[in-house]
Amino acid sequence: MGESSSGGTWRRAGFAGAAIGVLAAGAAAGVAVERLTVGRSVRRKARLALDSADPYGGLRGTPGRALADDGTVLYYEVDEVGEAGEVGAGDRAEASARLRRLFGRREPAPVTVVFSHGYCLNQDSWHFQRAALRGLVRTVHWDQRSHGRSGQGVTQAGPDAVPVSIDRLGRDLRAVVDAAAPDGPLVLVGHSMGGMTVMAFAEQYPELMRERVAGVAFVGTSAGKLHEVTYGLPVLGVNAVRRILPSVLRTLGAQAELVERGRRATADLFAGLVKKYSFASKDVDPAVARFAERMIESTPIDVVAAFYPAFAEHDKSASLPALRDLPVLALAGDRDLVTPSSHTEAIAALLPDAELVIVPDGGHLVMLEHPEAVTDRLADLLVRAGAVPRPAAAGTEPGES
């Protein structure tokens, strides 16, 4: 008899593991050097120390829950104007200083900024931008289905589970908007998968876009052709892995407990890969790197498997021209290996009036690596979108037409 299908799948998984191991050799070599010089117990103590002192990801707002059209519960939080919050917002003087730094003498007008996070992250990935805007502008931060505090996607569970589509995520964003910001102007901000979510939202709800959306920010994202990304690795190796990776992920997703144990056993290699593909700066804050690592490692393997196929299929370039009349920010790190800056440049090419910003020495998690550069450009977008009133023309007083 021939080889069983399960045996064949596991053999392919073995091949994929070997190929991925070879392709990750650069990161692994750096980790191996560290292992020769730093004991495992020392590294573990360092991680625990970072975790206990980590100030990142602790900002919380007023919680809420939206119901997606398939019954999935989506968790979001709202930071209202004037609310200091319990962590990190500081006193009124500190808020005034932030207001002056970001907007000068201009005060934010009523608007809700909705932040959508990327693959294997959660709403806390916007920590620095949230801290800067907290109490100054109304913001909504939400966890994509199966991420963070949101429920597992209903249609991704059980024997009839189906992969996630980017269009599905666009409908999820609509559910969050309806629940957390049912009226008033919106500015939509998306990083990576979150930017794709915004594109799907724009394609599916053009009337809502025309009536309510005042601006859009795309951060480290892509409108399509992700199947061409090499992640800074040899093309032939990447293509070989890409062909078998979906089936491997499905197999591993069915053995989630085993995979999570393996993930813990290879924590050092995992941390090295996260750093390589998240950041470009050599001097990134270790606490920030550990913060990113914790977010990514908290994403279960079955969730990784359910979302992965969506990226190869993603193509929203045809929908982008509908945003031509809106203020748009297209921003990326110049050394992003996951969604290269050329993808952001392609978005800007379809939107000639968009502000294109390529952040030097920036990786995929540019909003964590260079937070002020991203926050300042978002503040500029709010001005362009009319969320922050423009200064009065020379010779006129505020309020004069």
CATH class: Alpha Beta
Which superfamily, in CATH terms, is the homologous superfamily?
Alpha/Beta hydrolase fold, catalytic domain
Which runs of at least 5 residues are low in confidence (pLDDT < 50)?
Answer: 1-39, 85-89, 392-401
Largest sheet: 8 strands, mixed
Annotation, overall tally of beta strands: 8
Distance between the terminal alpha carbons, to the nearest Å? 85 Å
Write the element-wise H/E pattern from the N-terminal end onward: HHHEEHEHEHEHHEHHHHHEHEHH
The Rg value, from CA coordinates, equals 22 Å
Question: In the CATH hierarchy, what is the architecture at level 2?
Answer: 3-Layer(aba) Sandwich
Number of helices: 16
Structurally, the number of domains stands at 1
Description:
The protein has 16 helices and 8 strands. The radius of gyration is 22 Å and the shape is globular. The protein has helices spanning 5-23, 25-37, 40-53, 92-103, 127-133, 166-180, 193-204, 206-212, 235-253, 256-265, 267-278, 286-297, 301-313, 341-350, 366-369, 371-384, and strands spanning 62-67, 73-79, 112-116, 138-142, 186-191, 213-219, 328-333, 355-359. Strands 1-2-4-3-5-6-7-8 form an 8-stranded mixed beta sheet, with helices on both faces. It has a single domain (5-384), classed as Alpha/Beta hydrolase fold, catalytic domain (Rossmann fold, 3-Layer(aba) Sandwich). Helix 2 crosses helix 11.
